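Secreted protein containing C-terminal beta-propeller domain (Natrinema salifodinae), 658 aa
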Amino acid sequence: MTARTERTRLLAVALAALLVGAAVGTGLTGLFDGHTADAVDREARPIEGVSDPELVTFESDAAFAEYLDGRPDDAWTGPATTALTGGDDAAVEEDLDDTETAADGSAAVESDAATAPSGGDGGSAPDSEPRHSETNVQEAALDEPAVLKTDGESVYYADYRYTSRWAETSVVDVSDPANPTAVGSIPLSGDLLLADDTLVVLGDDEAAGYDVSDPAEPEERWRTDLAADIDTARLHDGDLYLILVDRPGGDPCPMTPYGDDPVECTDVVRPATPADADAVYTAARVDPETGALESRESVVGSQSLSATYVSENGIYLSYMRSTSGYELRRSFLGTEAGAELLDARARERVAALDDLEISDRAKRVELREILRAWYDRMADDERREARQAFEEGVREHAAANHRNLTTTGIVRIDIEGDLAADASGEVPGTPLNQFSMDEHEDHLRIATTIPRTHGVDSENDVYVLDSDLETVGSVTGLGVDERIYSVRFEGDEGYVVTYREIDPFYTLDLSEPTDPTVDGELKLPGFSEYLHPLEDDLVLGVGQEDRHPKATLFDVTDPEDPIELDSEIFADERYSDVSRTHTAFLQDEAHGVFFMPGNEASYVVDYEGGELEEVAHVDVGGPGARAMYVGDSLYVFGEDEVVVLDERTWDETTRLDL
């Protein structure tokens, strides 16, 4: 039999094992009897871990399809058994898929959240325009999509959160702040952005722009079909930036995420190394007045355990790279300690797996059978000892390679001129959401969770990357056996909340990029899911305790000794939308208050003097409740009405049906 014939036979049997191995339990056992193979410990098989990924494009449509189909079958793609929920590792010969994660992904436009203080001057001079709130955003110069927008004269409110399908956007005249008037509507609802006299509506499967120079008579300027989901969007310096997510199917090439201009698969950027890519992220610059596509760049990405962050200088996209259960065990068996556990027959069969061009799934099936056959050749006592030694060896190998098992790749798209991917980097772990990243003085800071796996506890890290996205500094080992629940970077300071049973609030000194340090730590019950700097040295945390929304006021005047000044548990509520999206939160610095909605009602809380005091309870709640202010009038929008409060007395002045 020729070498080619033998190889063909091996691959054919491998395919059969893939199809029936799980049902029959035979895998490829017996395939390698008499097969000449070097010992399994012929060469070590280190786990690659963090790399410096070069960015390339695909050579062909077939290469694109193969790359997206090539992610490990047992890759770490979402919350399974986590540091939060606990769980035991299964026996290795019974389950080669016991990898675990410890971070959540984010989905809809509003839910991928971050924030920066909104506010303005207190009151207004008689001859000046009244002050008005803006959407709570991460970067002050970049507006973000939200269901509520105002220019101080008119308000646009999309109430789709209350309905099964998006219906319309209400238009309200607030030129007389104390006496708002409903003046019209737009027959499309979704997340909104207001660019001068153009209201951009980002719907389910379409985007549109409306001329609102006459708010009572809005006119459609453009409408474009969307064949991709909107991950997020930004309005910056008169330009609309859309981040669109394609999930390629059976015939993926080309893709048309926006309008009818296709993206060729050979134009999609990818790392030169394999990644857990199951989607394509397209960053598009669009003229908000016309809807015309001006520039775009497409990059492979991961739908879960990734985040998108946008600064004034660039768009940061991320993807995950993970080590499959098979790769981890095969790597262990390539070490001296692992190889010494097996007998000669098992070593030969394991080594022969390397020569087969088959999927990890097929190799996983065969490795399971090799181990079972190895155990079957032992007496009962010897089998128990061997199984325990193997499982302990894998755990020790996982611990030694913990930060190499799951990594996040980062691609920066430059927004000066034509959009173009101009840098890439990689760090251990996975981010939580857009707050996990922040650009400051030519450096990117990113906070990640290193997932729990194989009995190795989760940990949390913060990395500092330079302008080339190379790591120059790090803080590691925060919140062992916990995961990140919220992050906030503010200048040279950083704040991280981790949680499992208590809520450690960490303060970080990031003033020296190459030597970031933990300044202080404060442990509290409950956890914060959103952090908001209210003013200098005062940070608000919004989260939960005992299944009720909770607000916590932190004094960080001394970063080495953060203090809890006060906290408020909203015992009548089960949920606040602030936990899902920062755009539900509103701060009015002039009056020293903040707004947060609950599932039953909405609340205005005074934070001045270091104490939290509820000053208004509005019987409008639910997932779509939002607030804004014009002058000294606070508007709380609900499903079908808006309530207006006088911020000087907190009395209700009027209600308006929408």
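The two ends are 81 Å apart (CA to CA). The CA atoms of residues 529 and 543 lie 5 Å apart. ok done for today
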